[in-house]
Design goal:
It is a single chain. Strand 1 and strand 2 form a beta hairpin. The chain has a two-stranded antiparallel ribbon. It contains six helices and two strands. The chain has two domains: 60 residues, Multidrug-efflux Transporter Regulator, Chain: A, Domain 2, CATH 1.10.1660; 54 residues. By secondary structure, the chain is mainly α. The longest helix has 38 residues.
Length: 127
């Protein structure tokens, strides 16, 4: 199934400018024009969805480009390495978010028990 850039962008739930940006970055190919219009196919949609899913997992565009390049080869070790690095970064971020959650829970408790003065939640965010 061939589609115009607008339909292609809609299929990937991105804007047309995002498609063009990905093309400039080498993540997506720029198809040849046919009758003045570029047409995209199912393979392009699969690649775009891969990019979006990899972004959702926290991979950078550079890492995604490398993963896409690896897909055409058989360097499983490098793909595993990239994924392990992403897992480590996610674990670090999760730990940071858990600490922030615990601190906020503590502040909520302090705010509920204090009867006078500024709310500890608001006070903690002051400059």
């Amino acid at each position: 199934m061939e589609m115009t850039i607008g339909k292609f962008a809609a299929a990937g739930q991105v804007g047309v400018e995002t498609i063009r940006y990905y093309q400039r970055r080498g993540l997506l190919a720029t198809p040849r024009r046919s009758e003045g219009v570029r047409h995209y196919g199912d393979g392009d949609v699969r690649r775009l969805l891969f990019i979006r899913q990899a972004q959702a997992a926290g991979f950078t565009l550079e890492e995604i480009k490398e993963l896409l390049d690896l897909d055409s080869g058989e360097d499983r070790e490098r793909a595993r390495h990239l994924a392990k690095n992403r897992i480590n970064a996610l674990d670090t971020r999760i730990a940071e978010l858990q600490r922030a959650r615990e601190a906020l829970q503590r502040l909520v408790g302090e705010c509920a028990t204090g009867k006078s003065g500024p709310c500890p939640i608001l006070e903690s965010f002051e400059l």
